Predict the structure of Amino acid/amide ABC transporter ATP-binding protein 2, HAAT family.
Amino acid sequence: IAVDNLLEVNNIEVIYNHVILVLKGVSLNVPKGGITALLGGNGAGKTTTLKAISGLLASERGEVTKGSIKYRGEAIEHRDPAETVKKGVVQVMEGRHCFEHLTIEENLLTGAYTRSDGKAAIAADLEMVYEYFPRLRERRKSQAGYTSGGEQQMCAVGRALMSRPETILLDEPSMGLAPQLVEQIFEIVKTINEKEGVTFLLAEQNTNVALRYAHYGYILESGRVVMDGPAADLRENQDVKEFYLGMS
Ligand code: ATP
């Protein structure tokens, strides 16, 4: 079957501060309309991979020194984040990163800053975000810094949606959240994927939940892809069960 890959990462190497080699040749494909998971433990290189794609690496003195990253066939490995957002790729950072002094609604509206399609379209999308996240509607006038971790994670995803992205790079959506909320966030990701057709590449340490929602997974260890396959196959794989799902 011909797969329409939106994003192709080909054998990239990433170095921080000119000396610290963190990604040692990572390749992965993200098909249009899919949910792809990037799995692996602490420090495996998941966040670095997402930042290499979004262009956020540069602000951390990181650099793609080998390989290529193509979005719709076009090289993006040396683009800055604003250009990548204009191409339709937006990253939701780990640890949520809402503007604490802005209200939830003001945070959501910052996501629309690159758009030029007018107030009515933006208002319609705000309504869409509130339909996905009723909790955000209730809290829309609250200062983000005073809302809960789960609400801030929802706000971060909602803000990404406000840029009308084609692809969302989602870093550790489960981080710091109670299991029930984790499930809720992933359910919404699934719905956004199915209804809005948004493509997801998500980094997750929580292998169990990620492999239940993703279509395809890549497992990273020390800056290399050590295994990849359809999520259903990975869930049944003996090594994955033993080392990542805590079964044996
Ligand atoms: P985590 O879930 O902890 O974020 P990860 O798989 O996302 O893990 P990365 O954050 O990509 O891993 O980190 C990979 C490696 O790169 C780690 O060893 C980390 O210490 C190192 N690293 C990350 N950012 C920098 C930086 N700005 N400068 C130097 N080294 C860094």
